Amino acid sequence: MNSLLTIQHLCKRFGDYDALSDISFDVIQGEILGLIGPNGSGKTTLMESLAGLLHADGGTVSRQGKALPAGRRKDILFYLPDNVLPYGDQHVITILDFFCAMFRTGHDIKDGVIRALALTPVLTKRIHTLSKGYRRRFLLAIALLSPQPLLVLDEPFDGFDLHQTRGVMSHLRDVRTTGRTLLLSIHQLTDAERICDRFVLLSSGRLIGNGNLPELRKQAGLETGNLEEVFLALTRPNI
Predict the structure, then answer these.
(1) Phi first, then psi: what are they for 7, rounded to 5°?
(2) What pLDDT score does 238 carry?
(3) Are 41 and 2 in contact (CB under 8 A)?
(4) Residue 161 C-alpha from the chain's centroid
(5) Deepest in the core among 24, 97, 162, 184, taking most CB within 10 A?
(6) Which CATH code for domain 1-75+152-158+183-239?
C-alpha cells in the first residue's frame, strides 16, 4: 500500500486544553478513510491542522518520507469544511464556472459533477436560497472540481435523506476509482461503515483506533460487531 500522507505525533493545544494528543496514522493512496468521533473529539481540529489552517504544536505531516509544510499542503489537499456558504448572492452555475476556470477543470468534468449531484434544477438559483441538501451538493461539487489528489470533506452527507446519501456515496466511490483519495469526517457511524475502507477513531483528542473493521474489532477485543459496537467497546470507561 502506498502512503499518500503520513501523520506522526500530531498535537494541538488551546491554552491548557489538549485538543489533539499524539495523533499518528497514514492516509493510503486511493482509499476512503473515515475520521470518526463524537462532537468535541478533535475531528475538525485535526482536519484544519492537516490543511494548514491551524498551526500544530507538535508532530509532522509528511509525503513520501519528506516533511510537507503547511504552506504546501494545498497542492495535495482540498479541504471542504462544514457550515460554509461562499458567494451566497451569486447563482450556482456562475460559481461552478468560476471554480472550473480557476482549477482549469474541463467542462465535461463539470457537467458530469452536475449530473452526479443532481444540481441541474438549481443552477440558476442564488446560492443563499438553496435548501440544506442542495447547499451540501453545491459545496461537494466545488470539491470535486478541484485538482488535488486528496479530498478532506467534513460531514459530506449532512442534510441528505437515505436515497440522496446512497447516491452521493456511489459517486464518491467512483471518484475513488479515478485515483483520488478521500478523508471523510462522518458523524453517523452507519454511513461511515457503508463507504469507508478504513477508519481513524478519535475520542477526547486521542487516537483510540486505526484500521479496517476487522482490525478495529481485534483492537477492541471483539470477535464480531459493527462500527458502533467497536467504537463503544474502545471508549468504554474502566470501572
Answers:
(1) -110, 125
(2) 55
(3) no
(4) 19
(5) 184
(6) 3.40.50.300
